[in-house]
Recover the amino acids of this structure.
């Protein structure tokens, strides 16, 4: 889509490394330092400005076939280089991403009878480290089955952690904030009774992205990048010395990954910052992913959409047909299209359009949907044409119910059906136990599947938003049509019968789940008491209305849903217009004072027209934010349109308390804005 | 294809069966009698002419979900009826198949808290019994997971058995002939070191079709019919009382079958005969299968073919490209086409035509073949056109290497590629451990797959021959384009490095494997010492040349391969012409004196022109067969063209010893023909 600016600096240092047992590589500014030591075991450690953040941590693998360990190595050689380049994403938080690192590649060979060659590659950035294992093609070792990856992250201290419990099938948990010593995964897992399918691992397992904070004030973020043909890495916590150990999600027979040489693992990503904002600003995970074939994806277009979905969640309508309340009927969908057209919203998602919802969930049933048969009251062709006549497009819904074999064998037909009906975006869903039976949402086979769907969709110029998939690892850099995923507890869970989301949840998501990639969080709820259609419900959306608007800026995504019913959105036409106007692609983004479980504030400048947006969200605390407009261009005057919580706004007591005001500002001026308990603000800053 | 002649006789007897605990139903001629008794457990027993052949055997299920047993029932009602009809197969051993039985349906309900309704249906024929469980739609019970089917077959005596060891993944064993007490499954399984993937179950497990012979001279045959959405039934032998118990093949997580009400199990089939020929003549398994939609399958056409395959087996060529000996090259395949055209052979199978053979097997690798990419030296379009110009068609080869997920997601493209290249028959293969990993060749998911492929192929008017699939259960009645399968140790195993086939093997196959459906046995070898291209080989085809010809008549299949190399076939041009001339569809078939492990002799009359063929095969013994031509039409004179073993023929010492002679016969005359050790004969009897 855009040019990539490259400025490569190669500082190749060829060490005579045979026999050498210690290697060091520092980030370009020298502050992050990685030390590799090869004594009995090969270890790495990471320091920042002389502060050891990762104590010597072992590396390696246990293989199930051949049945050997890759743990004791001799170093055959090493190479070091520096790369300084930048690139332009097809969409994103900034138009130019700096990719500046020093790389150390160790060529290793096992000391055991079976001489297996493995390369260990570290990329050291000023804001962190990425490392992975490469398996070069070699004599006598080609196909192998990983029993476990033995990568450690040895913290050595009882950091504060923002975590969700380890699970092979779901990441839809509320975040916990505790010391590592207080992690209780099974209890945390058991609390969440509203998640469809759970496979807890044990009592000391957490998922990534994992946000840690040291007592000395360091923010450490552990995740992975470029997960394409490998299981998700979960982390087992050893509380004796606060070591986190990789624990890969197994397949049906207990194997972890089937690999062959000429490949590599995903990158293990570590972001290090002395400030929380440094975590939010980091592009390290994207940088560790491969570039896209830009021309091939030139048709990818950011968009906003509404959907026939929430009315089923709140009990107004149903997915299934025979209830008498079938929501996806032609007349009703036309109303959504009319609403979208009125406000310039690009897409209308329709769930429940296809046959199968009468018996779709919970029975590990393979034949559920065929993805090409609409219910009799859903005139898809007519609706698609009606939408297009109004500059709107339908968005397809493919709920697989976890029956992925069924989806794969029907995928070609399903995508062709979309093309035939002029639909170019699909929301996929994986609610249910996976078929192939014994596979998990996070196992290698499923991670291959998600990419398979992305690639097949791209062949037909179709964009994908996935739900209940494994959490992202920056892959939308490589496959830009894989626009966003859910892969966390999203706004939808406000409708869970037992308990919804806490106000702090979103402030933690920004530091954790969102570092992997855009989330289909579905903000945009303007009506918060969810018992309107079903008096038995007690849950509500724990947010102010201003915060809902703020999320469209705070949570970056190239595809964003206004989640609420049109009749609820219609009560605030100006706010809808304001939200629709928010760009989906940015020239630059700067995170202002933020903290996980506190607040997140960001200033973004639109790529298209240079308009600035600043937005913030808060947790359960009311907060005042002083904004400093020094980022504005000097000599110009700007109009600020601010939407913030009213003085008496409160996520529970008065969620709709909002005030909207306009004023002029000049660069260098300051402004105080208010965030209520569970609230937020958003402002648009245009040049006058 | 043909009309179905129906003459239904309904003798509906509605018994006031509530409270009744004993039910009897007899075959139309009264000789086979089934008694159902509902005491503590529900049991069935079977007698023939007052001789109890199946002692009271229990019935039922253990479910994994809901976690209940379906073992103790009350009888809600029963219905009995008699059906007497006949039908015409699209192809087969006879043009009109009699289907005459009495049926008893017991409507059962479990006595336990969870009241589950199950129907038990027995069809009692003069030559045996079929029974199955039906799960009617009902309140409160819909989806369920079978943990085990608890069907017993209680023999109560130490019968002689023709058996292969139980295994979840293969049926490619040589048959053993022992008493039931001497069954040693694990040892038998371990002997067969040439089978690619084996999953033995235990030491007392055998497969079906299982042929038993009682000391009183009864032939009892146990198998199943209409297996479409269920695992293969293997049998566990309890040597205490010689009870065979159903043991279903599990999936990756140990479940057996995922079902929902409105369905039924496959039929459990029992053929009973006082003569071995009665087993061979029985149509019971076909009768238990559902009829085909005849019009839909009107394009299905029996055919003979040769193949580029054996040259790879014997080391003349290779499947893979880079060897310098790639067999599937355009020039070589043209020679096969020329040979086929010269002799009027309809098809030429080409293995090794597509990319992937360099690394295709043994590593549980998912991405192997794409089924649409020929090697550079294989001009598929040109060859297909060349073949068609000579009235020959190419036959496609889809080796999946067990990676069935890969095959399913590419199936549509693969079949479309066939259509685009004017190819209407495919040989599929499943050499390797199954993916989805943890599934087995014989598990429910795979049985669904085989039918899925058959149905998808039928949509494109494609015929299927499958290898390494689960053994057939008469399904080619319902899906006639699923022409034949291997699913046993076929002629190909003569090339196994350690040991090939014994002469007796084929005489047992006729009684076991072949009762389930046509086999792609690939007879037609004229060259028996297999070290011509590879001096290290010691194996050979243990057969005489006459027997190879005889197999085309003895083993009924609508699709038959002449297995050998054209240059070997070309040495016997008259014999090739004789074989090519053998019909693939018959008006009638009569099995003459036969015995498993002895000899099999059959007389068949061609549907097209009334020409008779008689053929026989022998085991390791030399035999003389006296044929009685009383089946010929009186008042006519016939010419017999006989091909038999020469006096000094012998499967090892002189396999090519053959004599061919013509003579006249009249109805009622007799003729003695010779079968050498491991030999056979075949004759054509045409009206003068």
């Amino acid at each position: 889509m855009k040019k990539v600016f490259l400025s490569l600096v190669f500082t190749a240092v060829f060490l005579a490394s045979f026999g050498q047992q210690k290697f060091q590589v520092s980030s370009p500014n020298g502050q992050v330092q990685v030390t590799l030591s090869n004594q009995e075991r090969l270890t790495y450690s990471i320091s920042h400005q002389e502060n050891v953040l990762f104590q010597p941590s072992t590396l390696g693998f246990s293989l199930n076939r051949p049945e050997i360990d890759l743990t004791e190595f001799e170093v055959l050689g090493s190479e070091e280089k520096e790369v300084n380049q930048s690139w332009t994403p097809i969409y994103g938080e900034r138009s130019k991403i700096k990719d500046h690192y020093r790389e150390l590649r160790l060529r290793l060979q096992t000391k055991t009878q079976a001489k297996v060659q493995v390369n260990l590659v570290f990329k050291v950035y000023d804001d962190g480290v990425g490392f992975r294992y490469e398996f070069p093609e070699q004599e006598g070792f080609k196909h192998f089955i990983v029993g476990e990856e033995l990568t450690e992250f040895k913290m050595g201290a009882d950091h504060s952690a923002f975590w969700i419990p380890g699970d092979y099938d779901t990441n839809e948990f509320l975040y916990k904030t505790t010391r590592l010593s207080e992690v209780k995964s099974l209890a945390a897992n058991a609390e969440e009774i509203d998640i469809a399918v759970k496979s807890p691992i044990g009592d000391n397992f957490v998922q990534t992205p994992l946000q840690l904070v040291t007592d000395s004030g360091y923010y450490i973020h552990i995740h992975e990048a470029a997960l394409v043909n490998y299981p998700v890495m979960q982390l087992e916590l050893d509380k004796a010395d606060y070591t986190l150990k990789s624990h890969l999600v197994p397949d049906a027979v207990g194997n972890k990954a089937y690999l062959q040489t000429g490949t590599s693992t995903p990158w293990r990503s570590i972001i290090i910052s002395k400030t929380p904002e440094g975590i939010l600003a980091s592009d390290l995970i994207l940088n560790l992913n491969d570039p896209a074939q830009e021309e091939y994806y030139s048709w990818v277009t950011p968009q906003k959409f509404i959907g026939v979905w929430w009315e089923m969640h709140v009990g107004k309508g149903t997915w299934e047909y025979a209830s008498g309340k079938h929501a996806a009927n032609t007349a009703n969908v036309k109303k959504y299209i009319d609403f979208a057209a009125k406000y310039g919203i690009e897409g209308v998602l329709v769930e429940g359009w296809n046959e199968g919802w009468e018996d779709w969930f919970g029975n590990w049933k393979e034949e559920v949907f065929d993805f090409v048969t609409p219910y009799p009251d859903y005139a898809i062709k007519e609706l698609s044409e009606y939408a297009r006549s109004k500059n709107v497009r339908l968005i397809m819904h493919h709920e697989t119910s976890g029956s992925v074999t069924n989806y794969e064998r029907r995928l070609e037909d399903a995508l062709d059906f979309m093309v035939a009906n002029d639909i170019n975006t699909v929301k996929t869903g994986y609610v249910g136990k996976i078929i192939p039976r014994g596979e998990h949402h996070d196992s290698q086979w499923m991670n291959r599947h998600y990419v398979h769907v992305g690639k097949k969709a791209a062949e037909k110029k179709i964009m994908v938003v996935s739900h209940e998939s494994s959490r992202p690892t920056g892959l939308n850099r490589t496959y830009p049509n894989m626009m966003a995923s859910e892969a966390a507890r999203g706004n939808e869970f406000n409708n869970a019968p037992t308990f919804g989301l806490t106000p702090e949840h979103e402030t933690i998501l920004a530091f954790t789940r969102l570092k992997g990639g855009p989330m289909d969080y579905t903000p945009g709820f303007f009506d918060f008491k969810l018992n309107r259609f079903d008096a038995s419900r007690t849950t509500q959306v724990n947010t102010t209305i201003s915060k809902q608007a703020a999320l469209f800026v705070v949570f970056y995504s190239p595809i964003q849903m206004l989640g609420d019913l049109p009749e609820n959105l219609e009560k605030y036409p100006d706010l809808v217009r304001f939200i629709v106007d928010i760009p989906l692609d940015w020239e630059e983004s700067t995170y202002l004072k933020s903290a996980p479980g506190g607040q997140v504030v960001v200033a973004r400048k639109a790529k298209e027209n240079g308009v600035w947006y600043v937005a913030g969200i808060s947790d359960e605390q009311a907060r005042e934010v002083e904004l400093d407009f020094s980022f504005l261009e000097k000599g110009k005057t700007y109009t600020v349109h601010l939407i913030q919580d009213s003085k008496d706004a409160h996520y529970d007591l008065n969620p709709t308390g909002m005030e909207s005001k306009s004023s002029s500002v000049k660069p260098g001026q300051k402004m105080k804005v208010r965030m209520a308990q569970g609230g937020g603000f958003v402002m648009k800053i245009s040049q006058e």
The longest strand of chain B covers residues 73-87.
